[in-house]
Amino acid sequence: MIILTGGAGFIGSCFLWKLNQEGIKDVLVVDHLNESEKWKNLVGKKYYDYIQKSDFYNAVVHRQVPKPDAIVHLGACSSTTLTDANYYIKNNYEYSKVMALWAFEQGIPFIYASSAATYGEGEVGYDDDISKLYSLSPLNMYGFSKHMFDLWLLNNGYMDKAAGIKYFNVFGPNEYHKGDMRSVICKNYDEVAQKGVLKLFKSYRKEYSDGGQKRDFVYVKDVVDAMYFLLQNPSKTGIFNLGTGKARTWNDIAKAMFASAGKKENIEYIEMPDYLKPKYQYFTEAKIDNLRKAGYSKPFTELEDSVKDYCEYLKNKKYL
Fold first, then answer.
1. For residue 66, what is the DSSP state?
2. Residue 261: which residues within 8 A CB-CB, separation 6 or more?
3. The pLDDT of residue 82 is above 90
4. Known catalytic residues?
């Protein structure tokens, strides 16, 4: 049995799809299904049971959960705009510690979601070498909560018992429920396809043109392939950046969307909200040496091909 927390979420449900593709159905899905339509991510998936997050937490605390083969812990609050620090601490830090200690007690693989948000503005680069963790300065509480858990593992000598994944800008099917946290592609495909226009934030730094800000955009299908590799190779521990290793601009995203929709390029550059300006990352690019050294050699899909594939899902309102 594999325990998959956050299994109804974006990356979690796509990973469940990947497990199903590999013939794995013995999965306990853990999540918090609230008022959103996240439940739709589970339609058509194969798993043996589902349990609400709070019930699962209590069952683990009281040691009422049978020993699984592995825990893939993706459950977390991924919003970068909430201001309740206590919520992040309880949900992303304290909860993760309980899950990790239980996994270590059971002697089973523990794969968990960290985040590229831990790198902040990238002042010291985007290197997943654990010796550089202390030098990182996250820009928001979400990134800090993830950073706290990475440091807790390191400070307590647990890093060789876990595989932490620092996701960069992941996009793809099954993110429909995420509201403002959806990718630009998901939020704006209909406007591009129907009106032939896309709005992007202006740049407030002279070294970047409007729409020239760069991110490491990575397709969720590539992400779950790499995750499955780590699941199959439990001896590979530490922290692993998960991006393409190649930063691309928002303008590149826009051009790929217009091409996929068969529309002429028409980009409008708009003002960035004031609250976002001090927290905005102008450049991210994963250093993926650790993942490659671990033995993962599959190439990542080119951005234009990923966007084209994703737009077909958006066009037809389909899920993975």
1. -
2. 189, 192, 193, 196, 311
3. no
4. 142, 178
